[in-house]
Design goal:
Elements: E1 6-18, E2 23-35, E3 38-43, E4 52-55, E5 59-63, E6 65-70, H1 95-98, H2 109-122, E7 125-132, H3 138-145, E8 148-155, E9 158-163, E10 167-172, H4 174-192, E11 199-201, E12 204-205, H5 213-226, E13 230-234, H6 238-248, H7 252-258, E14 266-270, H8 287-293, E15 297-300, H9 302-307, H10 315-320, E16 324-327, H11 336-350, H12 359-366, H13 368-373, E17 390-394, H14 406-414, E18 419-424, E19 427-431, E20 434-435, H15 440-461, H16 468-471
Parallel strand pairs: 1-4, 1-5, 6-7, 7-8, 8-11, 8-12, 13-14, 14-15, 15-16
Antiparallel strand pairs: 1-2, 2-3, 5-17, 9-10, 17-18, 18-19, 19-20
The structure holds zinc ion (ZN).
């Protein structure tokens, strides 16, 4: 294979990786050389052979983001419907009563995935972990997008049922759960051996409380056997926390420890309601120490939860306890820079201090911590030998002006508006906000129909058969 080296000359700022410090550092007036195998040079003048070069004047080159938790499937069509909804008897959470109401028809599932990919990539995501139901277009669409992607086909033995808007019940069908588990293993194996070389698999029991202990343990064993990560929604709501206490007397973290599942390949989706959270009834502080000791990752997704009035307490506290906190977007708006800003704000609110987390801390959660969660030291950083997954930020964009510290401008002010280009494996996947490898506009055009279909079907999926106007009243009345 002929290597085609490209050089970005004298970039104003490069967020490079310092192996000695094990952290990102600023390089100024630096050259970056890369090809499709990875970065060849990061730093001073590059005087090796090259095929093409561009000027880095007024540009910042920085690592692409690693999103360890998102959902395609129904999430992209759920936008604008249940943001004001919740079940008051279940701590105000909308998850159990409302999330199962919307369903996507098979024809729209590829469009839904395409929209999520486009939104994520233009907000700087170069690696993502998609937890969804498997479908035929999943791997081909991910590969086509140019992103680096991990598929996490969810499986569970119990379905949620909310009786009369107040009691969460579980309807168990273990045989069905086992079938879905077997299918999921086929999908993760197919991803791991995908010819693109950019796909991977993650074993994903959907939720800690919808799987039996045996299934969780078998899933962990299969993940270990394959050298794959495993991810489980755990400690994500108070209803789940109380259900686990009722069943086992343990918090989610302690329960997973008792099953021998906590480990460095485990990513816990959300992990908000640990024993030391102010909403829980425990008066202990055990869970964070366990997570740190087992080097387990927390997949933190502040936007969806803070929208419902819930917050992890706090990113800074978890990090100071030694927990690897990585970042995900969960659902729409599928905007990683917005997620990073919200992570910072939520941490400072719940930590009651501007010192809870710094801008650099949040950049680390969105890059190096995500790479660590996936067991990789070749992504989430701009460094020789790492994959050429990076962003080019326009420092002359009005939202980036005036400039003193470019990362602060990007995270606190400009967000994705200043991202000019996004690269994965040295290939441009987003240019001026437009995904280059997928038909994003075509996919968006299909979503309205899919959302209309889901809204028509929703009352059928509601135990109380309520019409949509009762399930999700418009935010304003219709005027006459
Ligand atoms: Zn999730």
């Amino acid at each position: 294979m002929t290597k085609s080296v490209h050089v970005i000359r004298k970039a104003h700022t490069v967020v490079g990786f310092d192996a000695g410090r094990k952290s990102h550092v600023y390089f100024q007036d630096a050259d970056v050389a890369y090809d499709d195998t990875g970065f060849i040079h990061v730093g001073g003048h590059y005087d090796g052979a090259f095929a093409s070069e561009t000027s880095g004047a007024d540009r910042m080159v920085m690592p692409g983001f690693v999103n360890v938790h998102c959902h395609s499937g129904e999430e992209p069509i759920s936008k604008g419907i249940f943001e004001d909804a919740g079940t008051s008897a279940l701590w105000g959470n909308a998850l159990y009563e409302y999330s199962n109401l919307l369903e996507i028809d098979d024809g729209a599932i590829e469009a839904s995935l395409t929209v999520m990919l486009g939104d994520l990539m233009r907000s700087g995501v170069t690696t993502l972990l998609d937890i969804a139901g498997p479908h035929e277009s999943w791997l081909p669409t991910l590969a086509q997008s140019g992103a680096r992607a991990y598929v996490a086909p969810g499986f569970r033995e119990a379905q949620w049922h909310v009786e009369d808007s107040h009691r969460l019940d579980f309807i168990w069908d273990k045989a069905r759960g086992r079938e879905a588990f077997a299918r999921a293993l086929d999908v993760v194996d197919a991803a791991a051996s995908h010819p693109s070389g950019r796909l991977g698999g993650v074993v994903a029991p959907s939720q800690i409380e919808t799987c039996s202990a045996e299934l969780l343990q078998d899933a962990a064993a299969e993940a270990r056997k394959r050298g794959m990560p495993i991810t489980i929604h755990s400690a994500q709501t108070m209803a789940e926390h109380e259900e686990l206490l009722r069943r086992t007397g343990l918090t989610a973290v302690q329960y997973l420890e008792s099953l021998g599942i906590l480990g460095d390949n485990l990513i816990l989706g959300h992990c908000i309601f640990v024993d030391s959270h102010s909403w829980t009834r425990q008066r202990t502080d055990i869970d964070l120490g366990l997570l740190a000791a087992r080097r387990t990752t927390v997949g933190h997704c502040p936007v969806t939860f803070s929208r419902s009035g819930m917050a992890l307490e706090s990113v800074g506290r978890y990090r100071r306890a030694g927990v690897n906190v990585a970042l995900g977007t969960d659902s729409y708006p599928f905007n990683m820079l917005e997620e990073m800003r919200q992570a910072m704000i939520c941490a400072r609110l719940s930590g009651k201090s501007v010192f809870d987390v710094s801008t650099a801390d949040i950049l680390e959660t969105a890059t190096l911590a995500g790479a660590r969660a996936l067991g990789r030291d070749d992504i989430g950083r701009v460094a020789v030998g790492a994959k050429a997954d990076f962003l080019v930020v326009d420092l002359k964009h009005h939202a980036m002006q005036p400039i003193y510290d470019p990362l602060r401008n990007l995270l606190h002010c400009a967000a994705e508006r200043a991202i000019e280009e996004v690269y994965v494996d040295g290939q441009c996947v987003v240019r001026h906000g437009r995904p280059t490898m997928i038909d994003y506009d075509g996919a968006v055009a299909l979503l309205q129909e899919a959302q209309d279909y889901a809204c028509r079907k929703a009352p059928e999926n509601d135990p109380k058969k309520r019409p949509m106007r009762d399930l999700a009243p418009l935010s304003l009345p219709i005027g006459r």
